[in-house]
Design a protein that fits this description.
single chain, 132 residues, mainly alpha, 5 helices, 0% strand, globular
Length: 132
Amino acid sequence: MPANFIDFVTSLVYGDVGTAELGAPPAGTKNHLNWSLDRLITSPGSPGTDFLNHSVDVMLARYEAWRSKYFLPPVREWDGTNVFPHPGDPPVGPTMPANLAGSAFPAGWTPNDLGVAVEGYWDSVRNFVGGG
């Protein structure tokens, strides 16, 4: 039986980034609250890269490692378009920007550009309150 999911996610957001469950994270890793507060005080030089590093390389990686530790299935893929997924219902959510909708990225895009676009779309998803 896995350890308590709520306790683990709480440690990612407010605590030790899952150290009790997974061992120490890479040096300099911050929990989500401290990472967010630091960004409010001092904007990173490359905000998109910073967002991707924290979201994918820290938060998602720690969550996937926790699931693997307890032999749980991998995280289910999500295309970012359906905020309120219900089987059989059409997707409901903000419009996916064309540059994130699966086409080739615009010429000259950098990881920072990608991160800025993903974070901007994520903000619209997490603040979405409407429905079809």
